[in-house]
Structure formats: C-alpha cells, structure tokens
Amino acid sequence: MKDLYLEKNMNPQVAILYATVRDTYIRLRNLVESTEEKELSFKGSENNENSIGQLLQHLAVVDLHWVYRLKGEEVPLH
Length: 78
What we know:
With 78 residues, this protein is mostly helical. It has three helices and no strands. Helix content is 59%, strand content 0%. Pfam families: DinB_2.
C-alpha cells in the first residue's frame, strides 16, 4: 500500500481529501485509458445497465459537488 501525497500548502483535512480524489482519478484513468469507446458506452446485453462512461461521469460529478461543498459554495445548476 502506498501513502498519499499531501500538498503542503493546504489545510490538512482538505489535503487528505484532495489526495484521495487525485489518487482515485489517476488509478481510474490508468484502468480505462486503453478502453475502446464502444466498451465505455456498452449498457449490457439488454441495454438497461449503466455504462462505464456513465459511472465515470457520476464519479466526476460527485467529486465536483465535494469541491463546492468544501469551498462553502452552492453547486451551480447550469
């Protein structure tokens, strides 16, 4: 298991959250970078499941919401 890199110029709690998100992003990117677009958009044999692309988009939106929450700002609706 590796340690997370913590930014020195951040509040320690924010630095841990940021490092976790960054590490997860890098690991996910490495896992899907060679994935074909067809695979990213595949929604199951009956076309009724979430695709890899949809799940990645969901993770990105959740991370963005956390950024706004940590900044104490409202999440923009548009």
